[in-house]
Amino acid sequence: MDASFTPEQDEIRRTLRELLHKRCGPADLRTALGTPAGHDPALWATLAEQLGLPGLALPEEYGGVGCSATELALACEELGRLLAPSPLFATAVLAGPLIAALGTDAQRAELLPRMASGDLTAALAVPGTALTTALALTGDNGGDWAGGGRAGGVQARRGAGGAGWRLYGQVDQVLGGHSAGLLVVAAHAGGFARSRTLLFLVLGEAAGLVRVRQTALDATRSQAGLQLRDVDAELLGDEQGDVLRALASVGDTAAAVLACEAVGAADRALERTVEYVRQREQFGRAIGSFQAVKHRLADVYVQVQAARSAAYYAAWAVTHGENVGGLALAQALEALRTAAAEGIQLHGGIGFTWEHEAHLYFKRAAGDELLFGPVHRLRAHAADAAHLFETPEVTV
């Protein structure tokens, strides 16, 4: 394994960092969060048209760049540093790979080029609060998380005369779902006796679809609640597609990308804290000169660097058939939580105010763990998958 980055990968990071430094400062971030989309559409257009971020990991035949998950993860690390809100994760990490893996030739040819150009944003809608279960991050995704043929979740039935599909049900947490032009909805079909999970394509403006942007703990990661009232839908791929395996594969990639994003946020939270303790004086000297403060920040630094190594390895491992994304995500979320909490503590009273950015990093840490964790479940599932605590059989 060559752990060094290529010149192209370094250039992606450098260019994106310079752009975000100019276009996504604290004031720009707060303004973007107050828009109906929850992000800056002009910045998104720049990221898509000039840097090609939505198409980084999509095949060149569909207008993408043809890079690996590593490049996408590095881009998300830079976005994470400034908590830059965008449809990138929902579109390029969750929805796009599912369409590429399961879609028909016609569906891929129609949708992927528009997604690669940034013209079409997409979101994955999974019923309930089961996103991590559906992506096989905290448990087996073969259960009844999408409704199980019973009441609740999202149900699919054939249209009149067996033509097309109709969806009905509710989804409470959809990342970027309030503004996405396309929804990839997980639903159960076949009733109780022959229920199976399928994925469907629903246009954002479809009749019968009600979308409401929700108030979330982490305002930088927009969420929506969906109600599907007999909505017209198109089956993604065919009924023989291995939906659960595709979701698990996307889950491992998503975990690696999220780990890099969390590392970027943790690194920036640590940087801001170090800058502050160098300037803040108490008893006639900078508080950063106190040994207790140095020890606390040193512990955070070690944890962030360990999380960075794990995240980079997970991004590399995605293309080499190793499933370590969940462990890397657990390490990164823990590092972000620690860095954000220490940042608030060492900023003192100002760190607790709404006017300061420190609380945004803490909310990102808490929100991500609620959405994609918790950390102990990520690790427990990884241990179960590796049969770590199984007692070997003893033959006499």
UniProtKB/TrEMBL annotation:
Which of UniProt's keywords are assigned here?
FAD, Flavoprotein, Oxidoreductase
- Residue ranges of every copy of the Acyl-CoA dehydrogenase/oxidase C-terminal domain listed in the record: 256-383
- GO: which molecular function terms? acyl-CoA dehydrogenase activity; flavin adenine dinucleotide binding
**What cofactors does the UniProt entry give for this protein?**
FAD
Supply the InterPro entries for this chain. Acyl-CoA_Oxase/DH_mid-dom_sf, AcylCo_DH-like_C, AcylCo_DH/oxidase_C, AcylCoA_DH/ox_N, AcylCoA_DH/ox_N_sf, AcylCoA_DH/oxidase_NM_dom_sf
Q: Tell me which Pfam families the record gives.
A: Acyl-CoA_dh_1 (PF00441), Acyl-CoA_dh_N (PF02771)
Acyl-CoA dehydrogenase/oxidase N-terminal domain location, by residue? 6-119
Q: Which Gene3D superfamilies match?
A: Acyl-CoA dehydrogenase/oxidase, N-terminal domain (1.10.540.10), Butyryl-CoA Dehydrogenase, subunit A, domain 2 (2.40.110.10), Butyryl-CoA Dehydrogenase, subunit A, domain 3 (1.20.140.10)
UniProt family annotation = Belongs to the acyl-CoA dehydrogenase family.
Mind telling me what this protein is named?
Acyl-CoA dehydrogenase
